[in-house]
Amino acid sequence: MNDLVFITGASGFIGGQIAERLLADGRRVRVLARQPLPELEKLGAEIVLGDLESPAMLYRGCNGAATVFHVAGRVGVWGPAEDFNRINVEGTRNVIAACHTAGVKRLIYTSSPSVVYNGGDLAGVDESAPLCTVAPCAYPPSKAAAERLVSAAHSPELATISLRPHLVWGLGDKNIVPRLLALAAAGRLKIVGSGQNKVDMTHITNVVDAHLLAERALSAVAGLAEPGSASPGGKAYFITNGEPVVLWDWVNELLRGLGRPELTKRISLKRAYRIGGFMEKIWSILPLRSEPPMTRFVAKELATDHWFNISAARRDLGYNPRITMAAGTAELIEHLKRNRL
């Protein structure tokens, strides 16, 4: 497949890795970025300077492209709902409009499992789980609203699909693991709740695989490849490693591998939730730009189960995670030790 690909969010972890894989495969890649990306440009990517609020730049990016990977979005656990809606919802609406105007054939949207947030345990749930409309922070509802737009946009002219990768990590991650290690080093990380909650994580290699498999599957939907697989058009899929881990055991495995003290201090979910609510009030009153160190949403995420059934992705996309938790963790520990991170 040698059609031009347009990627939003290529300055981020997932978008950047998708761009690098496609370029390594000899694909023509164009990316949307708010600032120059010299490393990707050296690899051969065409850079379009703009953002999701720039219809003209989105059209320029989409023009001539057969596939769009819409990865960009606002992430976080704190901030005004209007900011999340402007980027995640209206920005996605702008991407869809640009796809239609430019005649794009395939749109793959990077969603999030948080779209099914329900305030409690999510243990082995599948895509039949209802999308959330309210949550303690604006991120989950905004991603759910954007996913609805993408599903509704599926048509014979524009085949769409949404992917929900969970807790993406691996070499190059600048968010999950670095934040955990920094908090642990500062003595600010405690086990929340029972410490037995299971979570799914997803190695970045598997996430990129899933996006490329989604493109291939949509090619069949659009009549651009050999038919035969179940139609994924307009659907959403959970993407994980398919091997849930006890969150705090995994964190301690990482710390142990790096020769750092393991976590032993605990805090109850009830107390963490109350602290999160208190901090949210303080941050609402004071002009603070940072995120609160604890929020109600974070407390829940750190103490509850959130792992998912990926049978649909295996069946419809041919998705089969090839980097295991054990292999990925060992690789990460060696990388961090080698680079003294």
Characterise this structure.
The protein has 341 residues and is of the alpha/beta class. Helix 3 (55-62) crosses helix 4 (81-102). Strands 3-2-1-4-5-7-12 form a 7-stranded parallel beta sheet, sandwiched between helices. A two-stranded parallel ribbon has the order 6-15. Residues 225-229 have low confidence and may be disordered. The chain is built from 12 helices and 15 strands. The chain has a domain at 5-168 and 201-242 and 306-322: Rossmann fold (3-Layer(aba) Sandwich).
Features:
43% helix; 341 residues; alpha/beta; Rossmann fold; single chain; seven-stranded parallel beta sheet
Write the layout of secondary structure elements.
Layout: E1 5-8, H1 13-24, E2 29-33, H2 38-43, E3 46-49, H3 55-62, E4 67-70, H4 81-102, E5 106-110, E6 122-125, H5 139-153, E7 159-165, E8 168-169, H6 176-185, E9 191-192, E10 198-199, E11 202-203, H7 204-221, E12 236-239, E13 245-246, H8 247-257, E14 266-267, H9 269-285, H10 296-303, E15 306-308, H11 311-317, H12 325-338
Parallel strand pairs: 1-2, 1-4, 2-3, 4-5, 5-7, 6-15, 7-12, 8-11, 9-14
Antiparallel strand pairs: 10-13
